[in-house]
């Protein structure tokens, strides 16, 4: 493996694995949310689309309020959604930091990055 190749190495495998695990966990949580809401009187989560909409609105901290959980079990599950969104944001920040560390630490491993930096300095952005 070429150590200067940015598309290889453990960091990309780790990121891929982390994203895969996060998507899998959220998939399980969506299925659980749907099972808790199924048959509940006045339930707002009636389909997979409703459950996904709720998860995305919760994860992005928008929280429109058009869909909300009714049974107690669903409310407890939703608290997991809310707390896990902090982990998702932490992962995004960590990935950004690792990208910066990798590009700065290898000094030239990503030719596109160097070209971008050169073009920025050519137009006076640095």
Features:
126 residues, mainly alpha
Please describe what this structure looks like.
With 126 residues, the protein is mainly α. The chain has a single domain (10-120), classed as Orthogonal Bundle (Helix Hairpins), CATH 1.10.287. Helix content is 69%, strand content 0%. The protein has helices at residues 10-37, 48-59, 72-106, 111-122. The chain is elongated and about 65 Å long. The two termini are 34 Å apart.
Structural class by secondary-structure content = mainly alpha
Count of discrete domains = 1
Which architecture would the CATH scheme give at its second level?
A: Orthogonal Bundle
Oligomer state of the chains in this structure: single chain
Outline the low-pLDDT stretches: none
Major beta-sheet overview = none
Tally of separate helices: 4
The overall pLDDT, averaged over residues, is: 76
In short:
The protein is mainly alpha-helical. The protein has four helices and no strands.
Helix and strand arrangement:
Layout: H1 10-37, H2 48-59, H3 72-106, H4 111-122
Helix pairs in contact: 1-2, 1-3
